[in-house]
């Protein structure tokens, strides 16, 4: 019954040989996607040679053991899958190939051997190697999937080649692009200025006063770690309170403009993180409208009170309240109305019901919202950069440690570790402590009850707080649009479109359109990179979600934890760890567009995974099973049953990761290069040059681009839902 | 080309299934299903019947033991590679494909050309009487029609074994009888090997060639419907297959394979079934209790309930309570009167006495 030919096995054997025989082994200087090598001395020019030609010319002989790993799999062709030799050879060949690739990749770098002891043992090496290229990558993939086919043949996951391969693939890329750079960065925290490993170097940097100083209690400055911690707790608390107020207004009041408040939730998705900071400067900065107004009124000198803790706190509260709202609206709606109705029939009045039933049931949700606000505030980079002043926080300190005059990798690594410690603690708390504590009920059965209205004593202050904050938010966003058409804020308030013209002018010439505006370059780069990253993010996220919801395997919870972990890793940490890890072989991608794409994939992957899990758990598992019993394998089932049914979720994940890639700044600012500048880092550059008009005009344009992307998606998804019936066939009439 | 049967027998040899370390879902069962027979797995929820079915399909892998379909040892073979089709409780029709696409789905993986697959699929739909609905989406069909599409989708693959997982549980009562007769008719017409899971004993009695009663991850009894109903092995089977009153009694004499039993002075002779003198249990179906004799066990009518087609009585005596039914609804017995209970000549079965277990109704 099993087919005698094994297309997957043969494909990967051939792929391995193609990578070894045909493609340039090392990365070429002209870039990954340049095919200049084809016409420039290939295959004998050493820079472009495939591995086999290098070995043939007597160079890079350390690559030759890979031949064993390529030849071994040929022996299993024609053997039955159940033959123990089949899995032994494949796992051995795959493991040998991967581990040899890793060992030689880390041992031999740009200056010969990377480790002193190797020079002592083998003598100095008079050769070097660059980062991996097409050939090495294809070989690595081939070894990986030969290995997973061996594991599958041994009987793992019922011998399912696709599932084992997918698990192996996800583990491989997450290890390479999340765990490896982070671990690498942790090590560099222990490196002294002379390049030696030393625990003292770590402690010296760790117990620095700039990190833990408590000077602010006595009037001078506090350390960055304490500042960050204090700020994050405050932001977490305030956003939770405001988010709860909004959620109560939407679900438990007679307020008429609920839809407007719900629309608030889209704001943080489409707003680049520092834009709020810019708008606050327009309002409360030294020449801000409000500042000037009060200064004139009381005839005092305008102050710089905004720059520092107050400004960052306000900006982050504005930016992250919608996130808390989004979490809490689910929590508030999730409290089963029948419990509240039961309480009321037991003679509790509305206030007693709220205090003794509703609020306690929401408690885990409130804690969750607090932790999210905490993590977001810790990780935020844009607002502290724009508004921080002398108020140092971890995320910006990391940046200045790397790009500033001090250039201190070790200090950046220590700061990143502290930041990572805070966010991971919150992440752990969220998963371990809150994981089991949800009271909200989503039973699938229609709950016929109605949520009671808030008691008046509660409703009035809640409405007041929510509405004034909503008006403030609207004002701030209004300022963004208005600020983009003012000549020079505070000095010359005449209206003009000149910022847009500077940024986005085009000239139509005979050869076609000339993009003459200053912003076009970074704009198109951003769109391109985001458009490349989005489908990849979606694919990785969906495959991971499929494995998590549909398959059982050993170590699944560790697998889940590893894939969700990058959610808790702040962008600045990712940025620092990437430039430390990926500017030397074996993976040498710093300064390319690839590193941007990769960083977006792994920054946004948890979002894709969550979306995928949410929609896949709505699909009845018997759909997969019936497809399997009808003779489809798990890949065919994934492609023909699951993917078509998930189309709306896929589209949403695509647009979301596209938009997030466009608004990202924290990781991006470390990874951009002259050739690949992104919109957000370009804007930050303008801000640093005090060119606010252009920065705000560009931000406004970005917001509208993203708003239309989200709106377009809403329309298409809405149509898909009604056009095709998405519910699995239940009992009919 | 018409839809035929490739029916093959199934054999379980010492098959167990454990989930995690402690949960034993199926414990060392041996089972043989002959080719062309319809065998039902029957038991309360959690007894391991669905796990057994899923092990035949390859959706669960046996932890130990061997599973053989036809001549092939399929123990380690995943679902994709087994020649087995399954009809799911929820039907599991693909909502994004039309009825015809659903039925063709499995055929496209069997190496059939597109036009062959199409004509075979249409034959399958004709077999279940839905050829005119092939362009519809599943959501545009009624529950019974969806069920038939699911059957057609499984049938067209001409599987060695066809599995049904509680196929009627989502249908309303009237439709159930119709659909189960259809399933039985197709099975007999094509000579299919069918394994059918249900927790409804009436459904099992009606469709099966043979019934496997399961309890606590093991097989309690295997037999034809008649055997199980008329001579259950133990109290569990007696109570699960049709309702049975279980009355404590004494075996007082043995005589050429027959036993004489005594309940409160009332004596009865029936097959001994290997029992020795001493305490035993008598299992009596509610319809086999006779109330209009002058001799028997003294009882009082404790409850009388009119359910339309018959009367249901709860009777009390010193032995406990029993449940009896009478077809005479015009002259019901009054609550509180005393009379004698005796038993029909055919029907009552002697079971070993067990401490604990089920009491009489």
Question: Any chance you could write out the topology, listing elements then pairs?
Answer:
The complex is a heterodimer of chains A (733) and B (361).
Chain A (H helix, E strand, L loop, with lengths): L6 H15 L29 H6 L8 H7 L12 H24 E2 L2 E2 L2 H7 L11 H20 L7 H28 L10 H8 L2 H4 L11 H28 L6 H6 L3 H4 L4 H10 L4 H10 L10 H26 L2 H9 L4 H30 L2 H6 L6 H10 L5 H25 L22 H28 L2 E3 L3 E4 L2 H7 L2 E3 L2 E3 L5 H31 L5 H10 L5 H11 L11 H24 L4 H9 L4 H12 L1 H17 L4 H4 L7 H10 L3 H32 L10
Antiparallel strand pairs in A: 1-2, 3-4, 5-6
Helix pairs in contact in A: 1-6, 3-4, 4-6, 6-7, 7-20, 7-23, 7-25, 8-20, 10-15, 10-17, 10-21, 13-21, 15-17, 16-17, 17-20, 19-20, 20-25, 22-32, 23-26, 23-29, 26-29, 27-28, 29-32, 31-32
Chain B lengths: L9 E10 L3 E11 L4 E5 L6 H9 L6 E6 L2 E2 L10 E4 L11 H10 L5 H14 L15 H13 L5 E5 L7 H18 L3 E5 L2 H7 L2 E6 L2 E6 L1 H6 L4 H6 L4 E11 L2 E6 L2 E6 L6 E7 L4 E2 L6 E10 L4 E7 L2 E7 L11 E6 L5 E4 L9
Parallel strand pairs in B: 3-8, 3-9, 6-7, 7-8
Antiparallel strand pairs in B: 1-2, 1-4, 4-5, 9-10, 11-12, 11-14, 12-13, 14-20, 15-19, 16-17, 16-19, 17-18
Helix pairs in contact in B: 2-3, 2-4, 3-4
Q: Your description of this structure?
A:
The complex is a heterodimer of chains A (733) and B (361). Chain A is mainly alpha-helical and 733 residues long. Chain A folds into 3 domains: 7-154, no CATH class; 211-481, MetI-like (MetI-like fold); 514-723, MetI-like fold (Orthogonal Bundle), CATH 1.10.3720.10. Helices cover 65% and strands 2% of the residues of chain A. Chain A contains 32 helices and 6 strands. In chain A, α23 packs across α29 (647-663) and α26 runs antiparallel to α29. Chain A starts with 6 loop residues before the first helix and ends in a 10-residue tail after the last helix. The relative contact order of chain A is 0.09. Mean pLDDT of chain A is 83; it is low at 442-446 and 721-733. In chain B, the strands form 4 sheets. In chain B, strands 6-7-8-3-9-10 form a 6-stranded mixed sheet, with helices on both faces. In chain B, strands 13-12-11-14-20 form a 5-stranded antiparallel sheet. With 361 residues, chain B is an alpha+beta fold. In chain B, α2 (99-108) packs across α3 (114-127) and α2 runs parallel beside α4. Chain B has helices at residues 49-57, 99-108, 114-127, 143-155, 173-190, 201-207, 225-230, 235-240, and strands at 10-19, 23-33, 38-42, 64-69, 72-73, 84-87, 161-165, 194-198, 210-215, 218-223, 245-255, 258-263, 266-271, 278-284, 289-290, 297-306, 311-317, 320-326, 338-343, 349-352. Chain B folds into 2 domains: 10-230, P-loop containing nucleotide triphosphate hydrolases (Rossmann fold, 3-Layer(aba) Sandwich); 239-352, OB fold (Dihydrolipoamide Acetyltransferase, E2P), CATH 2.40.50. Chain B contains 8 helices and 20 strands. Chain B is elongated, with a radius of gyration of 24 Å. The chains are: A mainly alpha (733), B alpha+beta (361). At the A-B interface, α27 and α28 of A face β6 and α4 of B.
